[in-house]
Amino acid sequence: MKGLYFQKSSTNEEITFVFQERENLPVIEDNYVKLQVKACALSQINTKLLAEMKMEKDFFPVGREIAGIVLDVGSKVSFFQPDDEVVGILPLDSEDPGLCEVVRVHEHYLVHKPEKVTWTEAAGTIRDGVRAYTALHYLSHVSPGKSVLIMDGASALGMIAIQLAHHRGAKVISTAGSLEDKQCLERLRPSVARVIDVSNGKAHVAESCLEETGGLGVDIVLDAGVRLYSKDDEPAVKLQLLPHKHDIITLLGVGGHWVTTEENLQLDPPDSHCLFLKGATVAFLNDEVWNLSNVQQGKYLSTYLKRCDGEAINWSL
Fold this sequence. Notes:
Elements: E1 2-8, E2 15-21, E3 32-41, H1 47-52, E4 60-61, E5 65-73, E6 85-89, E7 102-106, E8 110-112, H2 119-139, E9 147-150, H3 156-167, E10 171-176, H4 179-186, E11 194-197, H5 205-212, E12 218-222, H6 236-241, H7 245-251, E13 252-260, H8 269-278, E14 281-284, H9 294-308
Parallel strand pairs: 9-10, 9-12, 10-11, 12-13, 13-14
Antiparallel strand pairs: 1-2, 1-4, 3-5, 3-7, 5-6, 6-8
């Protein structure tokens, strides 16, 4: 049985992918589940994070978002039984690649797959689904009547976040990086309150949001990155599509929540003072937050999928 792995060159400049023959999986023990993989998503491999966590190896398994059928369970497994259909995310330290016929995984990294969701949809949306749910539910406490700005709404994360926000009764504003993205967002039902086209670099996100909210500002911002420096110090593409951090602070309402994906966010004293005056909060959306705790991993996944089982999420988008 073969599995796909990636290998970094000695100079760390080149990555190669190789298939390696794997031995038969050991006897399933305790809380582990033996899983036949039906679908696996290919997400970006964060080599920087692996280095920071001192988890670098000669060969690192590829593919972590998986969906499949339970073949066997350990003696202490309490949530699953053979023939269950499940979906989950393999941990960073997993020895098994998702791109393999059979994997062995701890039960806390899996949840039951909703019946209406296909294998491909489950594996392809679970990561961004957990990110969106974490951002809106745990980090910003979205609720009916709240206004939410979702940057880059036509992305995978943005599309799921828009639907979850609508499901919670929030008013959604979004940005689009191209005409195609703008048309896609305008076709959504329930409709987005306002789509801000930033593709030409002329749209003012802060002004548009303040206008849409009657000058009050938005309650929640989920960004897709921000500009930290002046125009002269930023790449042209980033300058065109991303708002400046000052714009985000300006459009935030009193008691607002800013959820950022910018891991190197820098706030100067005047920025912090402005956030203080508004009573606003800043939260960081860490892609790997579910790897910090096995129990928390299962909690995040199961809560997200229970919310999505039915009409809340259009999995085909």
